[in-house]
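Entry 12.
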Amino acid sequence: MYESIIGLEVHAEIATKSKMFCGCPVVDLTQAEPNSAVCPVCSGMPGTLPVVNQRAVEYGLRVALALGCEINPVSIFARKNYFYPDLPKGYQISQYKQPLARHGMLRIRTAAPRLAALGQADIQPGERAVRVRRVHLEEDTGKLTHSDDETNPYSLVDLNRAGVPLLEIVSEPDLRSPEEARLYGEALRNLLRYLGVNSGDMQKGVLRFEANVSVRLIGEEGLGTRTEIKNLNSFRALERSMAYEIERQSELHRRGKPVIQQTMGWDENRQVTVPQRGKEEEEDYRYFPEPDLPPLVVDEKWIEEIRLSLPELPQAKFQRFQEQYELSAYDADVLVADQEVADYFEAVGEAAPEVSAKLAANWVTGELFGLMNQAGVGLSSLKVSPQALAGLLKMLKGKRINTPTAKTVLAEMFDGGQSAESIVEAKGLSQISDADHIANMVSQVLDENPEQVTKYLEGKESLANWFFGQVMRAAKGKANPQVVKDELARQLVLKN
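Predicted 3D structure (C-alpha cells):
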C-alpha cells in the first residue's frame, strides 16, 4: 500500500490598488481592456527601475504574522530567470534565499486527524497542523490566450496582470491526502479573506495552487520522486488532479517503473494530468539578487503595529463561537467559514439577545442560506438585514407565529425586503394559541371523521399525525402546534 506526500504552493494576488513595482493600477482581467494597465516598468522596457509597493509588503506581513511565521528583518529580492511569452522582462522579481518570512503553521480541521504528528502539544482533537515553510513576495506574470483555430493557431498576450503583487505561501510536505490538501487550501483562502489581502475569487484567478505530489510505501521514510501540478484555480481541480496523480504514480511503482520528476498540467475535460516539461531545479532559474532593488528592511516597530492591527482570525473565532454561544463545532465551522456570514450571525444576536444562538445559527445557515442558494445571491445583495431577521426570530420565540409561518414570512422578506411585523399584520398570520379556539377546531375535526377515530381507538395510533394535519389545515397553518398536540391527545383519550 502506498501513501501520498503532498506539499502546496499557493499564489495569492495581493489586493493593492497598484502593482508591485510600478504605479499601474491593478485591474479586473475579466473587465479591463487587454494591455490597458501597462507602463515601461511592468512591460520590461530597458532602463526602467522598480520601486517596492509598501502596501504589498504590509499585506504580506499581515499574512505571515497570522500564520505565526518568523519575520526576516532583512529580505532580498532576486531575479528568477526563465523565458515565457507572458514574462516581458525574461525574468521574474521574486524572493529566494532570504524571503519575507518562514516557519509558520496553519491548522485545519479534519474528520480523521493524526494528532501530535508534528509535535504541536496544543493541537485539539479534530485538528491537524500543517507547517508553512516560507512566505515571500513576488510579481505576477501576464496572461496568454490561445486560439482554438487549428488552421490558423495563434496566442495573444495581455500584460495587465504582469507586475501585480503576489504572495507565495509554501507548505511543508505535511499533507497526506487530496482531501487534506483541499481543507488546507480552503482554510488558507478563508484566512486571506479575513485579513483583507485577497478576495478569494478563484474564478478570476486571484488565488492559484500548485501541488507537489509523491508516493511511498506506508512505513517508509524519506520522500519519493515528486511531480508538480501547475496552475490549479479551483478546489475541485486541486482535489481531482492530486487523486489522479497519486493513482498514476502508485501504478508506476506497482509495475516497477520510475516516476519522472516533471511539471504536470491538469486536463479538466479528460480529467487527467499531462506532462508539460521537465521539472526545473533551483539552479535552472539562475537566481541572483535583484541589482535594481536594495534589501527590504522591515522595522520591528512596524511589525508590532501590524500584529496589533490583525482582526480576530478564523481559528480564534471558531473557538469563541463554541465557548461564547455554546454552538457545536459543526455550526461554528459553517458560520466562521465566511467572515461576512459570521458578522451577520453576531449582528442577529445583538439585535435579539433573547433568542438562543442555536436558533439564530439554524435560521442563518438553514433557511436563509437555502433562499440565497436558490436565488444565487450573496449577503452583499441580501434584502433581509440582521435586524430584520432578529425581528422575525423574536416573533417566533414569543409564539406570535409558528415555524411554518415564520418560513413563509422569511421568503416574503427575502423577495421584498419588508419587515416580519408588517407582513404578519398585513396578512393576519399571527399564531392562534387560544385554548378554547383550538379545542373547538380539534373537536370539529374528530366529529367530521368518525371512521378514523374508530380506527385510532382500535390501535392505529399513526392516525394521530393525520388528525394533527387536519387541524393545522383548518387553522391555515397558524395554530400553535404544541397546543394542538396537547388538546388532540386530551380529546382522543376522552373518546376512548
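Annotation: The longest strand covers residues 127-139. The chain has 15 helices and 16 strands.
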